[in-house]
Amino acid sequence: MTALDPAEEILKRIVQLRQQLAFAAQKFEKSAPDGGRSSVHMTLRAFDEFLAAMFGTREPSVFIPLSQLQYALHDLDRGKVVSLLAPQKVGRRPRDPAAKDALMALAAASMELLIDGGVPRKHAARQVADDLHGRGYRNGVSKRISAQNVEDWRDRMRTELPSENAAVGRFRRMVASESQFPDPVTAARHILDRISLVAPPEIPKKPPA
């Protein structure tokens, strides 16, 4: 029997991992009773199996953080909150979840760059809002993201400090990345095209068949 080439085995495992991640993502439903944890379990199991195939069981320490996260999520399903997932006590809680902060920062940066490229403020806000809607983003459960929302997000990013809001730092870095592109409008399009990698939409577009 011919031994399987190591490179072929790795490729096989990567393809399998991709299929498992795609299936888990398809099943993810943030509004589900468990908040989507069941698909997160699927995702973590897929990584667990992949790492086990790559590293084997001779290095169990590699799996400790991942295993502890899996156990902590299972405890949530049982109604128990362990210290790993316990909220940090802070003096001032953030206004929005981290995912929305990321979305606001990137949307605001896109609008800022469009304006730098000569697009009028109102038109820039509308372009970004329409683009986000087309990609499946919503403001809350089902509300459409409006041009005014995008304008308000940009105003927040321009007036708040990174020490007050981590999203402001992300906004500034994205705007500063303009120098990597031929012009500000191209930079804005690049951000919008990659925004789902940072802040996945509530209603993701189905991949082409």
Describe this structure in words.
The chain has 209 residues and is mainly alpha-helical. It has 2 domains: 6-85; 98-198, no CATH class. The chain has 8 helices and no strands. It has helices at 6-27, 37-55, 64-77, 98-116, 121-134, 147-159, 166-176, 184-198. The chain is globular.
Describe this protein with a few key phrases.
209 residues; mainly alpha; 8 helices; 61% helix; globular; disordered C terminus
Q: Could you give the distance between the termini? A: 37 Å
Helix run count: 8
Tell the overall outline. Answer: globular
Task: Provide the low-confidence segments as ranges.
Answer: 205-209
Mean pLDDT: 86
Helix content: 55-70%
The oligomeric state is single chain
> How many domains would you count in the coordinates?
2
Number of strands: 0
Strand content: under 5%
Order of helices and strands: HHHHHHHH
TL;DR?
By secondary structure, the chain is an all-alpha fold. It is built from eight helices and no strands. The C terminus is likely disordered.
Helix and strand arrangement:
Elements: H1 6-27, H2 37-55, H3 64-77, H4 98-116, H5 121-134, H6 147-159, H7 166-176, H8 184-198
